[in-house]
Design goal:
Blueprint (H helix, E strand, L loop, with lengths): L2 H21 L4 H8 L3 H8 L7 H10 L4 H4 L11 E5 L6 H12 L3 E3 H9 L3 H8 L1 H16 L5 E4 L8 H10 L1 E6 L2 H10 L12 H16 L4 E4 L5 H12 L2
Parallel strand pairs: 1-3, 1-4, 2-3, 4-5
Helix pairs in contact: 2-3, 2-4, 6-13, 7-9, 8-9, 9-10, 11-12
């Protein structure tokens, strides 16, 4: 395996440790105490910077209530690590963060919904109004395949609902390193309004409540992403730097 492949494997292992710990409601300190390792060791492992020994891996697995085989059941390093796909609700900052990230990585940036519009020859609004959700889903799958065929180094900003299309989201996750840009519903709505788009609130007195409901329904799907980044109070540049650290770039 190449040095890049080694790093990708360690980062994938670290992401699994962190997600499992968070799902169990454990703190870094709590996991360290249960596994009999230092807090720094857990932090480095989750960041993909610790080359864990078999014995320490076994101890961490036990503390996470899983077998060593389950913890280490990771996909081999592949071109997916060269593609970054941003997921999250509208207003998460996918476009802004994506452009900045692509600039830092010197790689192409793609707005998936723009590709959908190009395929249809219509705006997203017209697609939904005239042709319906199923047509959008089909076009989204086609657009994703077209994008993936263009190369292995890309930053892709996806539509907010891509996670609700099982086949397309599975394809995205197997071909890209996925990042969930998280934010509170209030932050999502405020960002959309700040962009001059008042459609979410026009004639929708429960707009914020509806947004909360959508996020609640999709949260477990977004959580399947490889990386999670909270963006509520962070400037886009700070989010990009945090993401670059996660990616080891």
């Amino acid at each position: 395996m190449t040095k890049q492949g080694d790093q990708a494997l360690l980062q994938a292992l670290g992401a699994r440790i962190r997600r499992t710990r968070e799902a169990l409601g454990q703190t870094v300190t709590g996991l360290a105490e249960r596994a009999g390792v230092s807090r720094r060791y857990v932090t480095e492992a989750e960041a993909g910077r610790a080359n864990l020994t078999v014995l320490k891996l076994a101890a961490m697995a036990g503390a996470l209530r899983m077998s060593l085989a389950e913890l280490c059941d990771l996909p081999a390093a592949s071109p997916r690590t060269e593609r970054i796909a941003l997921v999250g609700l509208r207003g998460a900052g996918k476009s802004t963060v994506g452009r900045l990230l692509a600039r830092e990585l010197e790689t192409p940036f793609v707005e998936l919904d723009e590709r959908v519009e190009r395929l249809a020859g219509l705006s997203l609004t017209a697609i939904f109004d005239i042709q319906g959700v199923e047509t959008y889903r089909r076009l989204e799958r086609e657009a994703l395949e077209d994008v993936l065929a263009e190369g292995q180094r890309q930053v892709i900003a996806t539509g907010g609902s891509i996670v609700t299309s099982p086949e397309t989201f599975a394809r995205l996750r197997e071909s890209c390193r996925t990042v969930w840009l998280r934010a509170a519903p209030e932050a999502h709505l405020a960002r959309v309004l700040s962009q001059g788009d008042h459609r979410p609130v026009e004639g929708h007195p429960r707009a914020l409540d509806e947004l909360r409901e959508i996020l609640a329904r999709r949260e477990s799907l977004y959580a399947q992403a490889d990386e999670h980044l909270q963006t509520d109070e962070s400037a886009p540049a700070a989010v990009v730097q945090a993401l670059l650290e996660r990616l080891g770039a």
